[in-house]
Design a protein that fits this description.
Length: about 350
């Protein structure tokens, strides 16, 4: 299925994804997936453009996969948020009017939120000087955004180096700091649906939760309100710092966060070797009932997958249904699929996000 923006074709493009997930999970007697649709347009909160010179001007541009020399010039971007579409022509006019802003500018990144915040990153093939900073401050005030300038080995921040998001889960609003350059869910409306699905799927528990790959705490915050306590892991220092801020900002005080990879935590729980970063944490004091995983596209490695088998419940969010199916195949003899969902994070493409709740047989 090729990427094509056509809101009238939305359902016909979604149907093959639903069928694909059904087929992949059919060997495991999965229930019918609950399907969470995306807004038809203005759903993407992030956008990244290269700049392409034509007729003496720089234009927003994208390239087809594998094609580096034939640019597709972009004037507007209907899949991106309304805020991004409003900012694009104003930013373009600013760099066209200013040699200081346009000189050696080669890439622009936008990050917006459902809460209305916006941050722009400008990337340069030259050092950034005081003249650039003065022009950038004027631009920041004019556009009402935060702005980050990047050049080799240097980063200048005008305003904040993060955007603020607010997401509603089961009647409560959670606030998130989303750092520049760190991963965030691109489709905010569908992300909010994922959070609510996960919140409902885990249920009200009187035991503990282990979370692997917690990122900035996207799922951690609401899920922590459903359990006694949480041990969460994340390897990215930027994401760990954001998650710690987000926990504090939202008054969530039953989470311990450690900067370990899923593989390292597996070694710790299997008592293969000790880790200084776990100093002061008694792993044996936890009464884990559920493990929550949201791994990268490669899925869980075999050892981590084997670790999750110990838990009564495995709540799994996946950005790759093939590796999800492979992981479930490893666990199928001890766990069955109780819930299944498809989240259409990436409409008009073949990509999908899915979720399953596995419970011990």
């Amino acid at each position: 299925m090729s990427s094509v923006f056509d809101p009238s074709a939305y359902q016909s493009l979604l149907a093959p994804k639903v069928e694909r997930l059904r087929e992949l999970l059919a060997p495991f007697s999965a229930p019918e997936p609950v399907v969470f649709e995306s807004p038809r347009e203005h759903y993407r909160l992030r956008a990244e453009f290269r700049l392409w010179r034509e007729d003496g001007q720089r234009h927003y541009a994208m390239f087809a996969p594998g094609e580096k020399h034939k640019a597709i010039l972009i004037e507007d971007f209907p899949i991106a948020s309304q805020r991004i579409n409003a900012l694009m022509p104003r930013l373009k006019a600013a760099w066209q009017a200013s040699e200081t802003l346009s000189n050696r500018l080669f890439q622009v990144e936008f990050l917006t939120t459902l809460a209305g915040d916006a941050m722009i990153t400008l990337c340069y093939h030259r050092p950034l000087d005081d003249e650039w900073e003065a022009a950038a401050r004027e631009l920041t005030a004019e556009l009402d955004v935060s702005l980050v300038g990047r050049s080799k080995g240097k980063r200048l921040v005008i305003g904040r180096d993060y955007a603020v998001e607010k997401l509603d889960v089961a009647g409560r609003t959670f606030s998130y700091r989303q750092p520049e350059g760190a991963f965030t869910q691109p489709n905010g409306a569908v992300n909010q649906k994922m959070l609510n699905w996960a919140f409902e799927a885990i249920g009200e528990r009187d035991d503990d939760l282990l979370e692997l790959y917690c990122g900035n705490g996207n799922f951690t915050l609401p899920l922590a309100t459903r359990v006694r306590q949480v041990l969460a892991t994340e390897i990215s220092k930027t994401s760990v710092n954001a998650a710690l801020h987000n926990l504090d900002e939202n008054g969530v005080d039953n989470v311990r966060l450690v900067r370990l990879s899923a593989e390292e935590l597996t070694e710790a729980l299997n008592e293969v070797r000790p880790f200084r970063r776990l100093q002061g944490i008694d792993l044996k004091s936890y009464q884990f009932g559920t493990v929550f995983v949201d791994p990268p596209r490669a899925g869980m490695d075999p050892d981590t997958c084997e670790l999750t088998r110990r838990f009564e419940r495995i709540l799994y969010i996946s950005c790759n249904p093939e590796t999800l199916a492979a992981n479930i195949a490893q666990l199928h003899d001890t766990h069955r699929i109780e819930r299944c969902a498809l989240f259409d994070q990436f409409p008009y493409t073949h990509h999908m996000e899915s979720g399953v709740l596995l419970v011990r047989r």
